[in-house]
Specification:
The complex is a heterodimer of chains A (220) and B (219). Chain A is built from seven helices and seven strands. Chain A is α+β, with helices and mostly antiparallel strands. Chain A has a five-stranded antiparallel β-sheet with strand order 1-2-3-7-4. A two-stranded antiparallel sheet of chain A has the order 5-6. In chain A, helix 1 crosses helix 5 and helix 2 crosses helix 5. The longest helix of chain A is centred in the middle third of the chain and has 32 residues. Chain B has 219 residues and is an alpha/beta fold. Chain B folds into two domains: 87 residues, Methionine synthase domain (Methyltransferase, Methionine Synthase (B12-binding Domains), Chain A, domain 1, Orthogonal Bundle), CATH 1.10.1240; 118 residues, Rossmann fold (3-Layer(aba) Sandwich). Chain B is 61% helix and 10% strand. Chain B has a five-stranded parallel β-sheet, with helices on both faces. In chain B, strand 1, helix 6 and strand 2 form a beta-alpha-beta unit. Chain B is elongated, with a radius of gyration of 18 Å.
């Protein structure tokens, strides 16, 4: 197996689309339940405001599994993709300001939008990593982050040291909290063969990668 | 100033209730003013007009009919009404307080939206709330609880790395000999954790925090 570890990645702008349903889920709505007209109108009014305050950027690289193992990543493969995505501080600053002046609905909606946007940015960055993996004949697994499952959150610092966090304006507090909050660091195990060969029976409309969480079935 | 008799009074109180259910702060403000103009006692407007609406909103949230935004707009409508009625209550205002609450996030924890939501709902439900903000030193919680002779200290923690501070807070409040009871919440917190650290209660969401606060503070 050839090694594909890469030097530090450049910071890249990320094109994202924030899904309204995901924002509603962050607001607690479930199933077919949506907001009432009053709250729905406010969400619509805040949508462009939130969009303008989001600056999705990120960086990724491929490192040896030994290094992510040092960050506490459970069961790293010999090569691992690592990434960090953020939407910047402007949205959460505005949410805080509005909360402090008593506009709690606005704060809540902007916070939910930010959560959905940060996840969308992480997904977009992860997709770039997956394409890179495909080009290197690797099969990435789903992304995981410190604090998820068996990966202790105190591995966050070592993971961030592998990435240009400072150039993205992301820092870590003593309590291992990312600032801006709406930032996501993650790692992706790379395998040499698909972990789920059954997925190769249908073609993805995005690319030829078989073992990828973003696969979407081509319309018949 | 005209006193509203019988049915008109009933309709006005029902409209107050509905303004909270609708989360309509403008209507709540207007109806509070109408109540005063109609010589309805502010206590009656609160107890028979607005508060039943807020309780109904809490029930609808628990039943999954209302969600966080509806809970928030209801609380904001309640606050709009109270802003009109509170000054008229005079001395009755302090007698009406359900309890004094000091709230904040524990040291190292800088995520404020959940804590702010709980503080807003407690205030809307009749508690006197002192929101100390985020990353609040343990000494600050204790100092404010002593100054206010607080009934409750409420502490939120978002991460496993900061929830340990809730234990330190419980110990500090006890060591200081304060009567305040300590309630905890936050994403990684659960009932077992609350019991382990000797906290007086745990609430899994903002509406549950209001119920818990009502149950924890003796009338």
């Amino acid at each position: 197996m050839s090694h594909v570890t890469s030097p530090e990645s450049d910071v890249v702008d990320l094109e994202i689309r924030v899904d309204r349903d995901k924002v509603l889920r962050w607001l607690g709505y479930r199933g077919s339940r949506g907001p009432r007209p009053r709250e729905g109108r406010r969400i619509e009014e805040l949508w462009p405001v939130a969009h303008d305050l989001v600056e999705p950027r990120g960086a990724f690289r491929i490192v040896s599994g030994k290094r992510t193992g040092e960050a506490g990543m459970p069961r790293p493969t010999s090569e691992v993709g690592v990434g960090i995505a953020t939407i910047g501080p402007a949205l959460e600053d505005e949410a805080r300001r509005r909360g402090e002046r008593g506009d709690l609905l606005d704060a809540l909606v902007l916070d939910a939008f930010g959560s959905a946007a940060a996840e969308a940015a992480a997904d977009r960055l992860n997709q770039k990593l997956c394409v890179r993996a495909r080009d290197e004949d690797r099969y990435p697994a789903a992304r995981i982050s410190p604090g998820y499952g068996a990966w202790r959150v105190d591995g966050q610092g070592t993971l961030l040291a592998l990435l240009p966090a400072a150039r993205l304006g992301v820092r870590l507090t003593g309590a291992m909290m990312l600032v801006p909050h709406k930032s996501v660091s993650f790692a992706v195990r790379f395998g040499c063969r698909p972990s789920r060969p059954d997925l190769s029976r249908w073609r993805c409309k995005r690319c030829g990668l078989i073992d990828c969480r973003y696969r979407e079935r081509r319309p018949a | 100033m005209t006193e509203v008799p019988g049915e008109g009074r009933h309709e006005l109180l029902a409209a107050m209730n509905q303004s909270i259910l609708d989360g309509d702060d403008e209507a709540a403000d207007r109806l509070a003013r109408e109540a005063l103009a109609a010589r309805i006692e502010p206590l009656e407007a609160i107890d028979r007009g607005f508060t039943p609406g807020l309780r109904e909103v809490g029930r609808l949230f628990e039943d999954g009919e209302y969600f966080l935004p509806e809970l928030v707009t209801a609380a904001q409508a309640m606050q709009a009404a109270m802003a009109v009625l509170r000054p008229v209550l005079g001395e009755q205002a302090s007698e009406r307080t359900l309890g004094r609450v000091v709230i904040g996030t524990v040291p190292g924890d800088i995520h404020d939206i959940g804590k702010t939501l709980v503080g807003t709902l407690l205030a809307a439900n009749g508690f006197e709330v002192s929101d100390e903000g985020v990353d609040v030193p343990i000494e600050r919680f204790v100092e404010r609880a002593r100054e206010l002779d607080a009934d409750l200290v409420c502490a939120s923690a978002l991460l496993t790395t900061t929830m340990a501070m809730q234990r330190d807070l419980v110990n500090a409040v006890r060591s200081a000999g304060l009567r305040a009871r300590v309630l905890v919440g936050g994403a990684p917190v659960n009932q077992a954790w609350a019991e382990e650290i000797g906290a007086d209660g745990y609430a899994e969401n903002a509406a549950a925090a209001v119920d818990l606060a009502r149950r924890t503070v003796p009338p």
